[in-house]
Amino acid sequence: MESAASKSAQLTANAAEALPAGALEAKLELAEKEGRQLRVKLGLDPTAPDIHLGHSVVLTKLREFQDQGHRVVLIVGDYTARVGDPSGRSETRPVLTPEEIVANAQSYEAQAGRILDQAPDRYELRYNSEWLDMPMADLLSLVRTTTVAQLLEREDFANRYKSGAPISILELLYPLMQGYDSVAIASDVEIGGTDQTFNILLGRDIQRHYGMAEQAVMTMPILTGIDGIEKMSKTKGNEIAIEASADEMFGRTMRLPDEAMPGWFDLLAIAAPPDGTGPRDTKVALAKAIVARFHDSAAADRAEAQFVSQFVEHEVPDEVDAFAFESSDGSVHLPVVLSEAFGISRSEARRLVEQGGVKVDGEPVDAGVLDVSAELLSGAVVQIGRRRFKRFDQNR
Question: Cis bond leading into 20, ω under 30°?
């Protein structure tokens, strides 16, 4: 029988941290001794309807726990979404409407099922409105567990407090509410991104206050977007949705900078090609593996063939001149930037856009769309006509 130490080593292989040291191994040993499953928690606030590859990192880790026989408890934060997680933010997030929360939560569950085993003995879906819509006496009991000084140890809160930026009482409640989720579902292990370390560790303190065994903590590194710089995020326009078409998945992966590839192989648990494989072939292997995971191997082969046909054999030349552009507000007015990049008049550029004669990475820009996000153009090959190309790079 495989030892708890060996199982723990497998589970923490690509994790950022497993805290406290030895806690996960001890949990595995106890679960085996008691003949029970560990309850492994992941909380997701339904702030957007799509799950992207960044989310898949922690979902895949949950699947590894399931494959070892444990039970995943996926918590849809329909109640905490009313607060808005301030992690990594310099200001309060906008609050979603109840209708948006419900729609996004339903979308999350459906998409998570593409990664998680949703068999009843391995999976449990909970909504934290089940327990967070609590009487005032219970809320006062919860807030007694934590001091303001503890909450201000969080880097984002500390920076905002120091700068004089406002911090609402509502925001200060968020980590406590997330921590109480661990109490409500009797979490043994909680997984999250490194941006959630404070909240997850606070969950241990809150469990202890309520007389419960404290959960082990595992944090996963943050996957960068296709720009290779920023955290993958739909708001940044640098994401790959797990429900994207095979061609879109493949094409957007091929925009990833070479230096970002090792992190993607590691965090997405994809075997890298042998040493000595060239950067382009390495990226093709990565793109095909991603497509095969969320579609199938036949779709991956077709996406590769389509990409080669579109960008290698028939259209995009081997050498494409670069054009640097700037954006102060995250958007770009196409007639202006096309005029500067290709040396044509703005009226001609506008006519091309209005006639659907502009392509970005081989995909036509919708006719008449004059403004696009800077992230769409950053690192992309822009084409006008049949043989005029420029690779756009954003000055940062």
Answer: yes
